[in-house]
Specification:
Shape: globular
Strand content: 25-35%
CATH superfamily: Peptide deformylase
Radius of gyration: 17 Å
Distance between the termini: 28 Å
Order of helices and strands: EHEEHEEEEEHHE
CATH class: Alpha Beta
Number of domains: 1
Structural class: alpha+beta
Strand order of the largest sheet: 2-3-4-7-8
Helix content: 25-40%
């Protein structure tokens, strides 16, 4: 089921998220809804807080990058099958020289900015069957994971911008929270005026 994506300004995007246990009710339904919602919005990652659920869960599907000419052949091959569920993840290491990449976010439509992140990460997480993994990721996949991981930490990519960039997009962000933005997917706006 496709559910609305929560827009910038909603307090759930800043909440401390809870760990998930095996007893979490209807986790399979939540994960399925997240994938359907992400695909409908043409996203490559989605964190549970973005659909109003403050738990430590996000999904990633990097396959849209498989035709990216800027990626090496090896990277293209890797992303072409990269689709994962991350439950209770923890980034235990970040390394390498920071690099800029133009990021966007389904909760912050029509805003894209260069964000600096380290290229290599080590992540501990559980999959949808609660099997534990510790894996190394690099390049574009590491960046997608870092972006989604930030969401479950209550951090948005706009928090990583310079004070000047933040001032330049301030009115855009205010408009997004009020629903004054053109999107072709379902969204929930925290400060939208109710229609009579």
């Amino acid at each position: 089921m496709i559910v609305p994506i929560v827009a910038y300004g909603d307090p759930v995007l800043r909440k401390q998220t809870e760990e998930i246990t095996k007893e979490y009710p209807k986790l399979d339904v939540l994960i399925e809804n997240m994938f359907e919602t992400m695909y409908e919005a043409r996203g490559i990652g989605l964190a549970a807080p973005q659909i109003g659920v403050a738990v430590r869960l996000f999904i990633v599907d990097a396959t849209p990058f498989e035709d990216d000419d800027e990626l090496s052949e090896e990277e293209q091959k890797f992303v072409s099958t990269f689709k994962k569920v991350f439950i209770n993840p923890k980034i235990i290491e970040e390394s390498g020289t920071e690099w800029a990449f133009n990021e966007g976010c389904l909760s912050i439509p029509e805003v894209r900015e260069d964000v600096f992140r380290q290229p290599n990460i080590v992540v501990e997480y559980e999959d949808e069957n609660f099997k534990k993994h510790t894996e190394n990721f690099s390049g574009i996949v590491a960046r997608i994971i870092q972006h989604e991981y930030d969401h479950i930490e209550g951090i948005l990519f706009t928090d990583k911008l310079s004070p000047l960039k933040k001032r330049l997009i301030k009115s855009k962000l205010a408009n997004i929270s009020k629903g004054k933005v053109g999107v072709d997917y379902r969204m929930k706006f925290p400060n939208a005026k109710k229609k009579r």
